[in-house]
């Protein structure tokens, strides 16, 4: 069996990472910076900007710049569910 000469595509280079798309990115973080010592976190939101080195995602808590080299997994996700408004008393 001969080895495949083409390098495997990394999750951080997914073709759906374009401005306006809603995505979730799982990426590595230094344990020293993690509140409870975790090694990964997620960024869920709309892609704002895509660069060679990072992807900027607008989350509920603000913009997050995610270095592409630290992305473990990337996935396009559907729009958030609509908030249900309780029926008015009548």
Give structural notes.
This protein has 90 residues and is mostly beta strands. The protein has a single domain, classed as SH3 type barrels (Roll). Helix content is 0%, strand content 40%. It contains no helices and five strands. It has a five-stranded antiparallel sheet, with no helix packed on it. A hairpin with a 2-residue loop joins strand 3 and strand 4. The protein is globular. The mean pLDDT is 85.
Gyration radius, in Å: 17 Å
Number of helices: 0
Distance between the termini: 73 Å
Overall 3D form: globular
Q: Estimate the helix proportion, in percent.
A: under 10%
Note the beta-strand portion: 35-45%
Mean pLDDT: 85
Please trace the helix and strand order, writing H or E for each element: EEEEE
Neighbour order of strands in the largest sheet: 4-3-2-1-5
Strand tally is 5
What is the CATH topology? SH3 type barrels
Judging by the overall fold, what is the CATH architecture? Roll
Keywords:
40% strand; globular; 0% helix; 90 residues; 5 strands; SH3 type barrels; mainly beta
List the helices and strands and how they pair.
Layout: E1 22-28, E2 40-50, E3 54-59, E4 62-67, E5 71-76
Antiparallel strand pairs: 1-2, 1-5, 2-3, 3-4
Q: Could you write a compact summary of the structure shown?
A:
The protein is mainly beta and 90 residues long. The protein is 0% helix and 40% strand. A hairpin with a 3-residue loop joins strand 2 and strand 3.
């Amino acid at each position: 069996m001969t080895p495949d000469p083409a390098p495997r595509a990394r999750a951080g280079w997914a073709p759906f990472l374009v401005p306006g798309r809603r995505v979730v990115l799982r990426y590595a973080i230094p344990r020293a910076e993690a509140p409870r010592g975790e090694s990964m976190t997620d960024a869920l939101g709309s892609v704002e900007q895509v660069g060679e080195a990072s992807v900027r995602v607008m989350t509920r808590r603000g913009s997050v710049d995610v270095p592409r080299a630290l992305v473990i997994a990337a996935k396009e996700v559907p729009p958030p569910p609509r908030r249900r408004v309780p029926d008015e008393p009548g």
